[in-house]
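User: Can you write out an input/output pair for a complex, sequences first and structure second?

Assistant: Here is one pair. Inputs:
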Amino acid sequence: MKFTLSWLKDHLETDASLERIVETLTMIGLEVEALDDRAAYRPFTIARVISAERHPNADKLKVLSVDAGDGKPVQVVCGAPNARAGLVGAFAAPGTYIPGIDLDLAVGNIRGVESHGMMCSERELDISDEHDGIIDLPEDAPVGTPFAAYAGLDDPVIEIGITPNRPDALGVSGIARDLEAAGLGKVKTRMKPAPEAKFPCPVDVKLHFPDGESLCPAFALRMVRGVKNGPSPRWMQQRLIAIGLRPISALVDITNYVTYDLGRPLHVFDADKVAGDLVVRRAEKGESVPALDGKTYKLTPEMCVIADDNGVESLAGIMGGEESGCTDETVNVLVESALWEPLNVARTGRDLGVQSDARYRFERGVDPAMMEPGCDHAAALIVELCGGEVSQMVVAGKTPQPDLVVDFPLAEVERLTGLAVDFDQSKTILSRLGFQVNGTSETVQVAVPSWRPDVAGKADLVEEIMRVHGVDRIEPKPLPRMGAVAGRMLTTAQTRRRNAKRALAARGMAEAVTWTFIPGDDAAIFGGGPRLANPISADMGVMRPSLLPGLIAAAQRNADRGVGDVALFEVDHTFQGEEPADQKEVAGGIRRGTARLTGAGRSWQGVAAPVDVFDAKADALAVLEACGLDTAKVQIAPGGPDWYHPGRSGTLQLGPKLVLGTFGEIHPLTLDALDVSGPICGFEVRLDALPEPRRKATRTKTPLEVSDLQSVRRDFAFIVDSEVDAASLIRAAAGAEKKLIAQVSLFDVFEDESLGAAKKSLAIEVTLQPIDHTLTDEEIDAVGAKIVQNVEKATGGMLRG
Amino acid sequence: MSELQELETEILASLDAADDEAALEAVRVAALGKKGSISQRMRTLGSMSAEERQHMGPALNGLKTAITEAIAERRQVLRRQAIAEQLAAQSVDVTLPVRPSPSLTGRIHPITQVIDEITAIFSDMGFAVAEGPDIETDYYNFTALNFPEGHPAREMHDTFFLEPDEAGGRKLLRTHTSPVQIRTMEAQRPPIRIVIPGKTYRCDSDATHTPMFHQLEGLVVDTTSTVAHMRWVLEEFCRAFFEVDAVKMRFRPSHFPFTEPSLELDIQCDRRGSEVRFGEGEDWMEILGCGMVHPNVLRAGGLDPDEYQGFAWGMGIDRIAMLKYGMPDLRAFFDADARWLDHYGFRPLDIPTLFAGLSS
């Protein structure tokens, strides 16, 4: 909402400075978003061209002698076709900033002739697009005085942001009312009464909603006949231009002006183009209306229109139609001041994609009590500016009379804000805002004015008193501590998430935050996810079912920028469906190129090999470990989802059913489908699937048990079929003598034809920890035999001789 | 010079001349071996007169001890020389670079870091961390939060919708973290003190807006909290978060459907340079929206607004991260550019705490 200072002062008697007004507006909730004090126009002076001679070296240029009022003629080179002796225009001296061309003017030398300033066009001053010639003022314009004052360009423009709850502040009069309440002056808004009606309105209005809910509570109409349309007066044009509107003609400008002046949107029809009576109704299927913005809108029965015998003439509450619009030739005019169903206006505007000052106000709520006075005021303005005589008013429907009364305990202000405002002050504030306060006890009855549709209860009144009394008067008060030392604040899931992130970062990976929505094709490869109905673009259309596609795409972007060895992780949500339970918390990561834990790329100590499944496995296990899981209990099942390499992927499980995550090298076809290059390995761990840790009764750790007896190490190598997995061999060895075997570690994998076709050798080191006596050789041999027996039985392999 | 002295001088001279272990051993054998010069003389003691023995005995023993020590000493010297030579041969170019530690090359994203900072501050003030789903219902995102049906405030949220289900119902991506207010009130009785960090979505994309962003919501519900407490909490938070001694702040009336009264908090700063400096300057920058929980929202949470009251606020996590750490462009947050992460990210061991300072 924009307005000028002089406009505000039409409604508010005040001697407050601009600075104070601006500060007050912000502090009462009408935030000043921009203030143009128009200082840019100050340097321009009205000047007269004394003489205009042809430039000696250029046909199209003239050398002017300019009188800028100080008696010393100034030489100016000028190319404007209308530059002539006697012209009075706007002069800029050297050093002036010219806003329209973004230039600091200097003394120039144009084709050998010095130029000590500039006679400006409107475009150079940034007041219009006019650039056919320099500004040509009436001869009596006062030479030597500021051009801005003469042209009405010295009126500061204030722009405030209006929150959706304050439709009352969408007119200058409403803003003045707020400022009065804040103690900044006295409201002096004067509504013009309608001139005496000379004839009955020849056009009637019918509200036609036979099938139920009316979309038009009430509609007022007057005719003004015998008007002479033309440009609106200079002051009105200047104000409209200042707030960014384009003056069109007096009749149209009046509707725009009243919209901003009183917050009362209006529409004017050329009465001679209206056939028969006006009918307010829902649009019929297939109807359309060419509107005043030059566009034709296709209508649906959900939309409300004003029609006549010719068809639809206006899009109710949003925009008039072109066919019945006023022109310079208009002689008889119909003034519409109506009330519209806010939700319907909002929906229609949204569906048609049309924004207008009327729509903006009607969808927020226009003061119903202003409908008839607004019609009168506009009719009076028309007669004042365009002549003519006024008809009687036709009113269809019934103006709603809001009559909300709120029982308001004044103590409510202190209860909610901590601010003690005394009875009289509270009452004064509410009264000045237009609320009627009745009662003298602790609870008063407050009648809400018709222009405040947002006020519904006690809390709203607290806000009114608080904002006007002054938010900055509320002294901060410490929130009492809940206890001396705060207890544990994070849930297990939150702690695990933090730990997973730090653990992965500590493994040299960089944490990425990628878009939650990904291309549908990418999502499909990973199982598909919920689809957005209105994505911002096609490649942000589906909620990700996995973190991997986003991370893989990110890795490729990095590779395209020359960073091919990249390790990224993300800990966030994936979506299997739309329900809260379908949202899973996942830690995922990828490594590309040679970005391994020990470092990427070449080094004099050794060249890093391409990443593989075991890098991803180690990352996944690190996450589980960081989340407090005993990874010894985690089983690794070969294979995983089909976006992984089938022979180089695995699934992390607790028991046969509980899947904790997957890892592997990304399938080459997946890379192809994602249009990226590898090698890439990745993993995902489902943090929300991890079991809650068992609650411990005590923080005390179990006593440390270390044996004084030396442990014994023995190596075994087995030849097994190549499909035999290492885990089952290790498990078989460890299970041979659970009491004695402290550890089994696999230290060699060897595959060679010499072992036989499809065979491999796995070598393990078994650590035996004696319990109560040093083991004899016989005992050691016995355990060894048991190990061999167990392994051979479990794997079908044999001890390598 | 006596004969023994001559002998000593001679042996010591050959010791000095011995420049390796073998030579040293030869000297030892020549002096102290079975047939060594000293040993042989020792053997003659038996045939000496008592008087002579009394003189020669100590003299020979003294010589033997002296030579033994000299040999040991010489052995040490030789050993040191040998080790020194060996080490000299083993020396390497220690300026050769080593691989950097992964715990130093890894990075934590600024959003995570800032959420950890926020958590450190608010957990000290007794706030737990609450969360909720990204895909929400219209009820939790709007209706329960007092957004009237069809109201312009809904439109201002530029909502992403999911495709409708068979029944025609459609879910949406939450446009703010406020639905978690309702979910928390449904699940927990007051007193409530929570902060809600999370992802939020609006179909808006330009230089300063991304369709996905992060918000921090806060909620206090009890029977006594007022705007005055809210001012204190938010001012203390800003001071702690931006790590400045004093920040000038300004609360300004505003409007949100789910709070009444509603306020916005501006923070005084200097924006003239390339970075924003807090605690100085003449500019005001809006940092968050807040207010007393609207009675209708308390009711939606199953609480009587005449008995319970409280306040709530919401702010952009990405935005305060940019303000504090100076990233110029929001879009880069979500691009996963390794160079950006390396530059603006945090080391894994930089864990924000209040006792060690939020950032170092």
